[in-house]
Amino acid sequence: MANMQRGLLMAGNWKMFKTRSEVEAFILGLAPVFQKSSQVEAMVCPSFTLLSTAQKTIKRMGLPLKVSAQNMEYREEGAFTGEVSAIHLKELELRGVLLGHSERRQYYNETDVAINQKTKVALQYGLLPIVCVGELLEQRQAGNTDTVVIEQITKALEGLDAKQIPAIVIAYEPVWAIGTGKVCETPEANRVCKLIRTQVTAQFGADAANALRILYGGSMNNANAEALLSQSDIDGGLIGGASLKVDSFAELLNTANQVMSQQTVAVV
Ligand code: PGA
Whose CA is nearest to atom 1 of ligand 1? Predict the structure, then answer.
């Protein structure tokens, strides 16, 4: 996180875990983290049915914690049984939405074209799109990591304007590192995040690319977070497993705060 202006975003992806009472207990338990002043943007991404519980609890307690959804349909309304649109998410005053998570690509056949459509609609509704990209193990082993990631980025951002790029977040999540405990080596994670920034520079120019936050995701935990968050091109984390327990997520937020305050000291 070499660029102080970008700041760090720490987002907990809760996937299909937690009940309403667990969400309430989690948020109550996280409150002490926010007693210290914090420049880190903290976020949780619960299932659809838990979003309003999370929002209400946060409002009641006056916490700066943000809430985002894990997916959405790109069409605004219509006969699409079982889907949730940007209008629905906006009504809950959410911060944003995860798009193209590898589990959605893998189990629900989500394509780059759909992710691009969703990104555009999320922006139109003032939702922060957190666009996930990352290579499969076979692709890495075949030496295709860079080609795969560049293609996903190019397609996800196709047709956008340079001015829209700072309102987007990219999450680099090597699929083989998700939920496996196998974290991508820190220099390699930073190299791919830098590659993404270089690609965005080529598509949209340096100003847009420098303002873009790029997260790392894939087995981020309290043993590796400090090293990852201190890298030049990693601006936060998308955290699954280690975000489910309040103590563990609180420690991750504290680490992110420390990394940011060290950088502030270094800049001053
Ligand atoms: P993990 O999940 O931290 O459990 O690897 C990350 C993600 O899926 O976003």
Answer: 240
Residue environment code for 141-169, b if the CB has 16+ CB neighbours within 10 A, otherwise e: eeeebeebbbebbebbbeebeeebbbbbb
Concerning whether 76 is annotated as a catalytic residue, the answer is no
State if residue 178 touches ligand 1 by the CB under 6 angstroms criterion.
yes
What predicted TM-score, i.e. pTM, was given to this entire model?
0.96
Contact, 89 vs 55, CB < 8 A?
A: no
What whole-number distance in Å separates Cα of residue 10 and Cα of residue 113? Answer: 27
At 183, the pLDDT band (50, 70, 90 cuts) reads confident
Q: For 4-36, what is the HEC assignment?
A: CCCCCEEEEECCCCCCHHHHHHHHHHHHHHHHC
Convert the pLDDT of each residue in 101-134 to its tens digit.
999 999 999 999 999 999 999 999 999 999 999 9
- 101 catalytic? Reply is yes
The residues, ordered by sequence, that sit 6+ positions from 39 with a Cβ below 8 Å of its Cβ are 7, 8, 257, 260, 261, 264
pLDDT, tens digit, 9 for 90 and up, residues 10-64: 999 999 999 999 999 999 999 999 998 788 999 999 999 999 999 999 999 999 9
CA angle 151, 43, 131 (to 5 degrees): 10
Q: Is the CB of 240 under 6 A from ligand 1?
A: yes
Q: What value does the mean pLDDT take over residues 151-177?
A: 98
DSSP 256: H
Question: Measured between alpha carbons, how far is 116 from 220 in angstroms, rounded to an integer?
Answer: 26
CA of 228 to the centre of ligand 1 (A): 14
Ligand 1 proximity of 220 Cβ (cutoff 6 Å): yes
Residue closest to 194 by CA, chosen among 231, 237, 151, 147: 231
**Going from the N-terminus, what domains does the chain have, and what CATH number goes with each?**
2-74+85-267 (3.20.20.70)
Locate tokens 């969400």: which residue? 23
